[in-house]
Amino acid sequence: MTRVDVVVEATAKRAFASALGWPGWCRPGRDEAAALEALLAYRDRYDVVAREAGLVLPADPELHVVERLEGTATTAFGAPDVPAADEAGPATAQDVALLEASWRVLDDVAAAAPEQLRKGPRGGGRDRDAVVAHVTEAQHAYARKVGVRLTPAERADTARARAELLSALRAGGGDRYWVRRCAWHVLDHAWEIEDKGVGDQADGA
Question: For residue 58, what is the enclosing H or E element?
Fold first, then answer.
């Protein structure tokens, strides 16, 4: 087993477990135990991201909670929101590589998915292009926090917008929490597309 340090932020309604050093490998649960269980369950899915970045994810990780944080209303609503003490410094080369890999995974998943995704029991939920557009818009909001401000035309060029963001991170803009939060959002929706793009509707039924 290889130790993987984890930070947990929790409220009475929801908890998030995030693997420090592996931005985007972050899963929720009703409490700490459930969040840690979900994190382990997603090890193989996150491994796709690690391999895309040229990294080796521990095959048999032993999760070790190094910090417990009090969550916020945002945590309870469904998004990690509290930086860990270890995330105060600038993003590392591995952090940036994993964020970039997360984008490539999203692109690959979206390219392979049907335009119409399976809806919820009440017919709710976005289709593929709307999910991707949501991720992109949120990304622009994150970018402003690291000093990247783009014109509408520049924002429409996804490759350029991402390149500007990576350049800012490599120059020391943003902290490690910022990368974790951004990568989580990208992968959470990539996996949503993946999950909702399979089954009867994806088969043309």
Answer: none
